[in-house]
């Protein structure tokens, strides 16, 4: 089943890491540096998708759910966007390429190794002027957004970090007055690995209007979904 598939991927990754003395994330970056076109975000995104579908699975949002992400970003047309969970910078590059002139994306990554990879990926894609990577835990960074990073309110938030942080961080965004009427939250992996408490929270809250987009886990035929929650004020 699914668990066995993913378990095999994890074991294969650990063996490869040991032999090559580098992480999977470093291998993804190296593949991009060697095969993608510098300064072309679309090429970077496509090259990561190619690597992860053909060589090693990775937890990027991927192409199928990426199209839902693209469509949402285009609809919202945000001036200020926040991403929780940069990982290798895939979705940051994907979002940044759709931002209008003068718009910015703040992307938060807790893992210093991932942050280092994401920084290089963003720079190679040529979107570093639009993207600011903030390193640290989301619960510490969110309360600093207004003062330290001059955010008034967020037009768009992409949740793709630890699933158990989805609900507390959504509550924190509200407590810090970072959401306005019409702010859009988009949450990845709500079915697999799953964020059931988040779905319950936003769907039961009178402050959110929710839409579910059934899809598949990145690069696999495993059921997953993306949840859109519009803040009603």
Automatic annotation (TrEMBL):
SUPFAM superfamilies xref list: S-adenosyl-L-methionine-dependent methyltransferases
PROSITE patterns: SAM_OMT_I (PS51682)
UniProt keyword annotations, A-Z: Catecholamine metabolism, Magnesium, Metal-binding, Methyltransferase, Neurotransmitter degradation, S-adenosyl-L-methionine, Transferase
The protein's name in its UniProt record: catechol O-methyltransferase
Cofactor: Mg(2+)
A GO CC annotation given for this chain: dendrite
Cofactor remark: Binds 1 Mg(2+) ion per subunit.
Gene behind this protein: Comt
GO biological process: catecholamine catabolic process; developmental process; dopamine metabolic process; methylation
Provenance organism: Tachuris rubrigastra
Family according to the record: Belongs to the class I-like SAM-binding methyltransferase superfamily. Cation-dependent O-methyltransferase family.
Source taxonomy: Eukaryota, Metazoa, Chordata, Craniata, Vertebrata
Binding site for substrate: 163, 189, 218
Recorded GO MF terms: catechol O-methyltransferase activity; magnesium ion binding
């Amino acid at each position: 089943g699914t668990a066995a598939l993913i378990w095999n991927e994890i074991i294969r990754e650990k063996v490869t890491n040991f032999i090559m003395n580098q992480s999977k994330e470093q291998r993804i970056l190296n593949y991009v540096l060697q095969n993608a076109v510098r300064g072309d975000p679309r090429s970077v995104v496509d090259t990561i998708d190619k690597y992860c579908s053909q060589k090693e699975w990775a937890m990027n949002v991927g192409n199928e759910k990426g199209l839902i992400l693209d469509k949402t970003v285009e609809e919202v047309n945000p001036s200020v966007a926040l991403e929780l969970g940069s990982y290798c910078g895939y979705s940051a590059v994907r979002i940044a390429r759709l931002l209008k002139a003068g718009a910015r994306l703040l992307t938060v990554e807790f893992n210093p190794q991932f942050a280092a990879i994401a920084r290089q990926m963003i720079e190679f894609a040529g979107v570093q002027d639009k993207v600011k990577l903030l390193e640290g835990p989301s619960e510490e960074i969110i309360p600093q957004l207004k003062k330290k990073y001059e955010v008034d309110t967020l037009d768009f938030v992409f949740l793709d970090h630890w699933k158990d942080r989805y609900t507390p961080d959504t509550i924190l965004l509200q407590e810090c007055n970072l959401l306005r009427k019409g702010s859009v939250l988009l949450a990845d992996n709500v079915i697999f690995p799953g964020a059931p408490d988040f779905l319950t929270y936003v769907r039961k809250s009178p402050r959110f209007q929710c839409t579910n987009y059934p899809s598949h886990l990145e690069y696999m035929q495993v059921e997953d979904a993306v949840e859109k929650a519009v803040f009603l004020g």
